[in-house]
TrEMBL record:
PANTHER family given in the database record: GLUTATHIONE PEROXIDASE
Active-site residue list: 47
Domain of life: Bacteria
Similarity comment text for this entry: Belongs to the glutathione peroxidase family.
Entry-linked PROSITE patterns: GLUTATHIONE_PEROXID_1 (PS00460), GLUTATHIONE_PEROXID_3 (PS51355)
Protein's UniProt name: Glutathione peroxidase
Keywords carried by this UniProt record: Oxidoreductase, Peroxidase
InterPro entries: Glutathione_peroxidase, GPX_AS, Thioredoxin-like_sf
SUPFAM superfamilies linked to this entry: Thioredoxin-like
Amino acid sequence: MMPAVAAPPACPALLDHAFPRLQDEASQSLCQYAGKVLLVVNTASYCGYTNQYDGLERLYRKYGARGLVVIGFPSNDFNQEPGENAEIADFCRTTYGVQFPMFARSTVSGPQANPFYLKLADLSGERPRWNFHKYLVDRSGARVTSFPTQVSPESPILVGAIERLLDARP
């Protein structure tokens, strides 16, 4: 008799999208993150909040083994990410040591936002008003909480919310 193998979690509708990766623009499905807690952030290289990359990377390293995935979406919506994808990838890697998954530059605000961001805004009731807006998505992909730019990655409010979702059983 063969041991039972757990089936991978079904892909929630929120994650049923694919986007090009930042580093090589190969298409990558968000479904691979089903069952994880996600912290989704629109990023920019030339913003007063760009140093939040440090805190985002520390969160990813600290909580990754427990199921947190930080996902970055560079955007020039606020005119602070003018570079091409290769430049952005190099900046993130060499300046901040970013290892968390990042996708190619895209629109994250307004009616032209990518479909994932449109759903995040719909589920949370808030759209990004500036760079480094954060969405925290539970393991089921059904609940989304929004955190404005000013909430730093390692603020007690955000860390507490992350820990509660990591501790919750699906």
